[in-house]
# Entry
Amino acid sequence: MTVDAAHLTSIMEWMSAQSVKELDLTENGVRIQIVRHENVPSAVGAIPATRPSSSLAASGPEQDALTIMAEMSGLCHLTPDPGSAPFVQVSDPVSPGQTLYVIEAMKVMTSVGAKAAGTVEEILIGNGDQVQPGTPLFRMSA
# Structure
C-alpha cells in the first residue's frame, strides 16, 4: 500500500504548527511514525523544523505594518460558523490571544490567535480560501 505524499506533507505541517514532536498512527493498514527532532532540518524542504504559531513579517520600509501569514495548509475560515460575523474586520483593534481565523486541515479545526496587539488594516484572503504556509492573510498596524 502506498502513502500519499501530499497527505504526509499535510500531517507534517500540522505537527509543526501544533509543536507535536512525535506521532504514530495507522491509516488503511499503513503505519506512519513521524518524529521531529529540534535543530535537525526537516525531511520535507518546504516545512521548517519549527514554526511559530503565527508568522509575522514586516511589510514596507517603515516596518510599522505587519503581515500575518498562514502557518499551515488548509481552508482558512474567517468566521466561527457560516452566516456568523467574522472574527475580525478592517479597523478592528486586536488583543493578544484574540482569535483571528481558523484553519481546517484534515477535518481538524485549529483556532489561531493574535500574538500581539494591533489594528487590522487589510484582510488579504476570503472566507474559505485554501492557504499554504506563508500565505499572507492580514495586514496589521501596531
In short: The chain has two domains: 1-51, 55-141. The two ends are 51 Å apart (CA to CA).
